[in-house]
């Protein structure tokens, strides 16, 4: 007249929870959140197993209710099955989206599934993030769910659930980093001569540093140009400008850096010891004497650029096409190619000099060395020549140039 409690999956919950059940007594089955039993309702009955001494021998059997409401014999153990599976290896995260592929193992249980994207926690200034209105009804045995446009470097929770409150899948994820916004606040501290700036917030990615380019022109020597490229760590919010003569002009560009790269650059101009509107100083290259069109030579009066030439000696002599201000800056920062007679006057290194004292240098004499060629000059051509000094450290590259210009 009774059946013993079935010993199937240990995670199964039976209601009512008893050791014995009457025949035809309906029992509800349930599982922990995210799992579903093969049958949600079962009942016990009996069937003839054999005949012994002319009498039937009965055994207990269990039946489960199928999706159409009928009762069918249960031939194997009832288990708690994971209703929904997110396909391994298909989770895709970018700076603005999250996407996943899902499959449903019990289609009858998945008909009312909903997927949502939500901010995982409160956001605070200056990195306030808007709440996402991403909810989608999922249908069928498998599919793809994509969150609506999201914000970079922000925590979101992705949840797939069955109403009213059964969680099938939940995932906490942070969107990828992207490049930061451009710095907005940079000023010159006149008491210290340093650039100062407001640190960028880590809204679009962890700020790992700042990239500065500082171009300096001298008010007293129009042929002088100094260009400095720096990479500073994120804790630095000031940097001393190079010391030069009063009235020197500075052009500064700054970019924030995240793991995704450099953001948009902001540009400022400063002029030391001047409260007027900053104005870029013109490049006025030094003149050259003793030009010989027949021999293809010109004599350059060179002086060491470094204040302590015994420390830094190696100067490059770079020959380029006739200049304007932009061309001078490009040649000063550039990487000259080997001399090519078919494309002269392209930019090339004419000489590498250990310059410790003033000297007259004959440009176009034809001498060669490793990586340079002091090629003869062509009559009828305009030339710009840069005497360049490069200083590199762990965080900076400094290119200092003096320009000469002439026509052959």
From TrEMBL:
Domain called Fibronectin type-III: residue spans: 179-280
Listed InterPro entries: FN3_dom, FN3_sf, Ig-like_fold, R-tyr_protein_phosphatases
Record flagged with keyword Methyltransferase: no
Keyword Repeat annotated: yes
Source species, domain of life: Eukaryota
Transmembrane regions listed in the UniProt entry: none
Pfam families: fn3 (PF00041)
SUPFAM superfamilies associated with the record: Fibronectin type III (SSF49265)
UniProt keywords, alphabetically: Disulfide bond, Repeat
Protein name, as recorded: Fibronectin type-III domain-containing protein
Organism, as annotated: Aptenodytes patagonicus (King penguin)
